[in-house]
Specification:
Layout: E1 11-12, E2 16-20, H1 27-37, E3 42-43, E4 47-48, E5 63-64, H2 67-75, E6 79-85, E7 88-93, H3 94-102, E8 107-110, H4 113-122, E9 127-133, H5 137-147, H6 152-166, E10 174-177, H7 181-196, E11 202-203, H8 205-214
Parallel strand pairs: 2-8, 2-9, 3-8, 4-5, 9-10
Antiparallel strand pairs: 1-11, 4-7, 6-7
Length: about 220
């Protein structure tokens, strides 16, 4: 039997793609569009103590848990990151992320800047971060109101919080302005393509090159 092609020696470690934005700027929509276009991605499903919105499904959008279970996960080191946002706790489970990256699968997550800062410490070499900006504050407020999932008081609170959230844009690898959703998804796809070709993610590449050189 002839030896396998040299390209089979090249494997790739997966990476964790994180999208952050002020609430309503589009990170969740971009995330789901990316999943629709690229089924090789796995969605990181966060845990949260907040109640589900009408359109959300437990286990698909979030895992909805109580405060006692969340505290236990923090205590046992089961979360790669966790933060409190608008009075509710959110966190990223460790085990499914680590298993996916080791298997060469890419994972996408939409979390806020607090969680991203923690991930920069816990999975620094596997992390790719994208910050999504709205084209204007007026557009951001209009999107929050159109979403119709929150009360007027909640929308006002999210708008008040947006300036602080946007101040963290410079901590991210990439920044996009979400003017048109299809254009923004295409920009994120371009980032994904580049990151998949990053030299440091291609395991066995040195051996492959040496075999090429040796003929």
């Amino acid at each position: 039997m002839s030896p396998p092609p040299a390209t089979e020696a090249i494997r790739r470690r997966g990476f964790l793609l994180v999208l952050s934005s002020p609430s309503g700027a589009g990170k969740t929509t971009i995330t789901h569009r990316l999943l629709d276009r690229d089924p090789s991605f796995t969605l990181s499903v966060s845990v949260t103590t907040r109640p589900p919105r009408p359109s959300e499904i437990d286990g698909r959008d979030y895992r909805f848990i109580d405060e006692a279970r969340f505290a236990a996960m923090v205590r046992e080191g089961e979360l790669l990151e966790h933060a409190t946002v608008f009075g509710h706790d959110y966190g990223t489970p460790r085990q499914p992320i680590e298993a996916a990256l080791t298997a060469g699968c890419d994972v996408v997550s939409d979390i806020d800047w607090q969680g991203t800062q923690q991930l920069a410490e816990s999975v620094a070499h596997d992390l790719v971060t994208v910050f999504v900006l709205p084209p204007s504050l007026e557009a951001l407020e209009a999107r929050l109101k159109t979403r119709a999932q929150d009360s007027a008081a909640v929308v006002a609170g999210r708008m008040a919080k947006s300036s602080e959230e946007m101040s963290h844009w410079s901590e991210y690898d990439y920044v996009i302005v979400n003017r048109e959703i299809d254009d923004s998804v295409a920009e994120v796809q371009a980032i994904v393509t580049a990151e998949r070709l990053r030299r440091t993610r291609q395991l066995g590449l040195a051996d492959f090159v040496n075999r090429l050189r040796a003929g």
